[in-house]
Structure to design on (392 residues):
């Protein structure tokens, strides 16, 4: 390595030789550098760039790391789409193909050398769930067990649990696009007729009995079988077999009880309800099954809004046994309001938030309190039906 001795050169504005001296110094320095290179550096004219060195055999993958893990302390078994990785192994040059779960990576933006490759997991996804990295070079192919993580399928339940037999229904949830699903009704195949990322559509056969079970199954991103069960018209869970036969109280005539097209009684809120008016209904009867752990249950009911008259974003309250101090403030549509467009839709709320002190014991009188107080004049036309408690 060249060593330079630093010398301080004092230059004054009045020295007429300054420019000439500086030029001479530069020339001498350049000449020394040029004439000294061969004395201090030994270049290999046969050097081969790391990404062009030849493989000695088939590729081998020993580990995969996140590109930010420069110390390679945490080997990965799965990664997300778009994540940049370092693949470590042997004979990784001359890459011909690189697939994550059957999806080809972008080879133009992949850098390789004999012992490692830097690659970005493809943004597209496959439902085949092969769960491998397939690495092909000029000397062969190797596979390495590796999962490309996908968003988990979330199943909320039937869009309307009290749909009528013979009609078209849907299973609501999210991330459905990433998976293939199969369904059964009481153990028999049930055809899924249409699919979106949030809905799976089907037709329930004529004559299907209340309290039947729909079961949905799929393979997770890790290749494991997942499933969940959903009740069809779960009349056995109803708090009130017939709400018209309960002990009732209400503050005014803005609500009537009528029979819905589901064949069940429902509460119909209708007409102009002025700003801050308080509408309250209460229904009491002996509790058929008590002593449950409320955190394990949902409070469930169906709601229908007339076309063009969505629910307000707030103003709805549910309480248990007159405990309004611990009442639950429901904000439909996560505070954005809710429009069911004239169709019944199932709502699931946490029972623990409505009855934080428990629901009582079997045989004890229980009271469900329903309140509504609009923050502005509201031309109401909505219905509630089928109040029930359902295990999560």
């Amino acid at each position: 390595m060249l060593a330079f001795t630093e010398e301080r050169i004092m230059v004054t504005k009045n020295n007429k030789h300054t420019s000439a001296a500086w030029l001479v110094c530069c020339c001498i320095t350049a000449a020394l550098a040029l004439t000294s290179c061969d004395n201090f550096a030994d270049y290999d004219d046969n050097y081969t760039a790391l990404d062009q060195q030849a493989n000695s055999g088939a590729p081998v993958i020993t580990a995969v790391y996140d590109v930010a893990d420069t110390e390679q302390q945490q080997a990965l078994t799965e990664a997300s789409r778009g994540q940049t990785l370092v693949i470590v192994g042997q004979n990784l040059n001359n890459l011909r193909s690189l697939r994550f779960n059957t999806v080809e990576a972008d080879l133009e933006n992949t850098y390789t050398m004999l012992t490692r490759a830097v690659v970005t997991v493809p943004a597209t996804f496959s439902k085949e769930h092969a769960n491998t990295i397939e690495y092909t070079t000029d000397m062969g192919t190797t596979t390495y067990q590796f999962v490309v993580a996908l968003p988990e399928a979330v199943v909320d339940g039937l869009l309307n649990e009290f749909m009528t037999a013979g009609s078209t229904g849907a299973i609501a949830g999210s991330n459905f696009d990433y998976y293939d699903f199969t369904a059964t009704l009481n153990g028999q195949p049930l055809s899924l007729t249409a699919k979106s990322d949030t809905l799976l559509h089907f037709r329930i056969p004529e004559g299907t009995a209340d309290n039947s079970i729909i079961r949905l199954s799929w393979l997770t991103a890790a290749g494991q079988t997942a499933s969940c069960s959903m009740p069809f018209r779960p009349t056995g869970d109803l708090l009130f077999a017939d709400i018209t036969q309960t002990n009732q109280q209400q503050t005014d005539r803005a609500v009537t009880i009528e029979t819905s097209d589901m064949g069940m009684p429902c509460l119909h809120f209708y007409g102009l309800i002025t700003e801050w008016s308080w509408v309250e209904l209460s229904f009491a009867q002996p509790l058929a099954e008590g002593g449950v752990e409320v955190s394990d249950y949902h409070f469930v009911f169906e709601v229908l809004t007339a076309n063009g008259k969505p629910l307000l974003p707030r103003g709805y309250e549910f309480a248990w046994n007159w405990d309004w101090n611990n009442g639950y403030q429901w904000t439909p549509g996560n505070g954005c309001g809710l429009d069911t467009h004239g169709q019944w839709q199932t709502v699931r709320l946490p029972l623990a938030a409505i009855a934080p002190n428990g629901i009582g014991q079997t045989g004890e009188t229980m009271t469900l309190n329903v309140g509504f107080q609009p923050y502005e004049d509201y031309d109401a036309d909505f219905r509630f039906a089928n109040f029930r408690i359902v295990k999560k």
